[in-house]
Write a structure and sequence with these properties.
By secondary structure, this protein is an alpha+beta fold. The chain has a three-stranded antiparallel sheet. The longest helix is centred in the last third of the chain and has 11 residues.
């Protein structure tokens, strides 16, 4: 599926927001979310973001295996 393809690539802010079921604005307002910046473009690595969110909640996980379960 398209979501499976995105897990192996980089996500835009809009794609990340859709996966997390939040608004793109919420992504913008949290500068601590791990991101990759290239010029003016910002991209997000799904397993890295997922691991970050779990660590923020006190639950470190194996991001790659968990990412496949969520989507």
């Amino acid at each position: 599926s398209n979501t499976d393809q995105k897990q192996d690539g980089l996500l835009t802010k809009k794609e990340l927001a859709k996966l997390l079921r939040v608004s793109p604005r919420k992504i913008e307002l949290d500068p601590s979310i791990p991101s990759i910046r290239w010029g003016r473009s910002v991209r997000y690595d799904w397993p890295t973001v997922l691991a970050y969110l779990h660590e923020q909640n006190g639950r470190p996980i194996d991001a790659r295996s968990q990412a496949k379960r969520i989507c």
